[in-house]
Hints:
Strand content: over 45%
Order of helices and strands: HEEEEEEEEEEEEE
Number of helices: 1
Helix content: under 10%
Low-confidence stretches: 1-29
Largest sheet: 11 strands, antiparallel
Shape: globular
Number of domains: 1
Strand order of the largest sheet: 7-8-11-12-13-1-2-3-4-9-10
Mean pLDDT: 87
Amino acid sequence: MMNRIKTAVTTLLPLIVVCAMSTTSPASAQDSVIYQGTATLTVGLVDVYGQFLGQQSYTTNVQASVRAADPRGSNPFELVVQSVPLVNAPGEVGLWSSLPAEGVLFQYWTYQYDLDSGTLVGSLTNNHVAEAIALNLLTIPVEIAPNLSMPYTLAMANGTQMNGHLDDNQIQLQVSGNTTDQAHPFELAITANRVN
């Protein structure tokens, strides 16, 4: 049986073709499939001197959206997972496959999706830290003085890996990598169910 993701991609194909001939965004918010759930972040923390303090886990609510692929990119669809609400709390995460801008697409992730099995495998190939538009982020407590920590938002390093399953009812993703300072190895587990 063909799942709704297949159907959505097929249904949105004319929209993709039309958008390829224009400079507008390939899909609007109403074209998105929305999921809600949780993300559990397990991350290594260090003290102000760089000494390993151990791992800590945090869970936040997330909203995910899947929409038609931007024809300027190489991915089969666009994916955004974001903690909600954003209040600068430890454990908040952002995961964006790309960012459309005027006349250009900044692609972060490169991934493959198998329509039949729903499996998704990918890698963060360009975090766009150099352009100051990093959107694949973790908020964690960072010690700024002995026994004094503040929540800081750090970018995921290039080479971060993602794998999991996505279908018309649910997203289950595992993301593992490090932050750009190479001081905070992390694992992220995302589970979200479709709400629209």
